[in-house]
Amino acid sequence: MNIKKPLLATLLLLSGLAFNAATADKAPDKAAEPPAPPPSMGTEYTETGADTCLMCHVDGGDFPVFAIFKTKHANRADKRTPFAGLQCEACHGPGKKHAEAGGGPDGINSFEPSSFLTPKQRNKFCLECHQGNARTGWHASTHDSNNIACNDCHKIHAERDPVLAMATQPEVCYKCHRKERADFSKPSTHPVRFGKMACSDCHSPHGSTSTGMLITPTVNQTCYTCHAEKRGPFLWEHAPVAEDCTLCHHPHGSVNPARLKKNAPLLCQQCHSVAGHPSVARTPAGLPGGGGGGSAFLLAGSCLNCHSQIHGSNHPSGVKLMR
After folding, report:
1. DSSP-assigned beta bridge partners for residue 214
2. Geometric angle at alpha carbon 110, from 106 and 111, rounded to 5°
3. Measured between alpha carbons, how far is 79 from 93 in angstroms, rounded to an integer?
4. Tens-of-pLDDT digits for all 323 residues of the chain?
5. Alpha-helix runs per DSSP H in the chain
6. How far apart are the C-alpha atoms of 170 and 281, rounded to whole Å?
7. What single DSSP character describes residue 34?
8. How many C-beta atoms lie closer than 10 Å to residue 119's C-beta?
9. Which of 23, 163, 204, 208 minimizes the number of CB atoms within 10 Å of its CB?
10. Which residue pairs, CB below 8 angstroms and at least 24 apart, start in 260-269?
11. CA distance 205 to 106
């Protein structure tokens, strides 16, 4: 049988490809080449990374590190994490001299308060990776200007960082904010101590352009994130309500109901004069039965007995906020 030369060449080529495919699995494996070291790898870095550190730093010691393997920082599959590169030395710096010396505080970035690094130097290691909207205001924040280090609040090696959990975050903040701890122990407060709110629900710990590092530009906008019914707009507005909620309310806690700074009518009379209205200050003489002949309407809710819509009203009754 005659077979044209081009067809014969094609058959021979296909036979060769089939033979190579059949014998490919039987070919000896090529020696795997070691991964290239990171560009910053130098003679001061260890060659085994975390393995060298784990020879000394075990659970129960001064610097337990095993818990970090349960965190995102130790995810080697994520190229953004320290363990995808220099591992422990990505944050703590070159550790060869530290290991050869048998440990000690010299030559290693310990991140402890006794560290030779300043808080700003310690924070630099964190900010090299942690950039974005949540950290853009850090360098202008009150925390940064007061030399707060990231690890003063965050527990890097902890499986669950306490400052990131709603139930445990306040205790971390209370280490510095002691007045706020006292306020949240008062009878009328936001439900922070019950684990239903956290400080970061209102404040941005990494910096903000607003007063008190609030999460929104103004106090009222922060309050409206929960108290939307007070937002309005109202046909009849109460001027201090539209201006600033903290004119009447303590944001953290108070001994008065509804976190008021004072009870009515004393709170109301800071702006409203008693002239022409039977709202005498609540003193022994001004109460009903006293020498001043005070009105019975001052009892219980006081001014709010009549002016019940104190935050604003859309009722045609007018500016007296009675309905």
Report:
1. 203
2. 135
3. 18
4. 444 444 444 444 444 444 444 444 444 444 334 344 444 444 578 766 788 888 888 765 555 678 888 899 999 899 889 988 888 888 888 888 888 888 777 678 888 777 778 888 888 888 888 877 556 678 888 999 999 999 899 998 888 899 999 999 999 999 999 999 999 999 999 999 999 999 999 999 998 888 899 999 999 999 999 999 999 899 999 999 999 999 999 999 999 999 999 988 888 888 887 666 655 555 666 555 555 555 666 667 788 888 899 999 999 988 889 88
5. 5-23, 50-54, 89-92, 96-100, 119-127, 142-145, 150-153, 169-174, 178-183, 219-224, 239-243
6. 38
7. P
8. 19
9. 23
10. 260/188, 263/302, 264/301, 264/302, 264/303, 264/304, 265/298, 265/302, 265/303, 268/302, 268/303
11. 31
Q: Which two tokens stand for residue 20?
A: 């190579």
**CB-count exposure of residue 32 (10 Å: 0-12, 13-18, 19+):** exposed
User: Which pair of tokens denotes residue 161?
Assistant: 């960082």
- Is 267:260 a contact under the CB 8 Å cutoff? yes
For residue 45, give both structure tokens: 């870095």
Residue 249, beta-bridge partner list: 260
> Is the whole model's pTM more than 0.85, yes or no?
no
| Under 8 Å between Cβ of 211 and 222 | no
Question: Which tokens is 52 given?
Answer: 């060298």
Question: Is the link from the previous residue into 265 a cis peptide, with omega within 30 of 0?
Answer: yes
Q: What is the dihedral of CA 253, 256, 257, 260, to 10 degrees?
A: -70
The Cα–Cα gap between 268 and 305 comes to 13
Determine the Cα–Cα distance for residues 98 and 196; give it in Å rounded to an integer.
45
Amino acid at 38: P
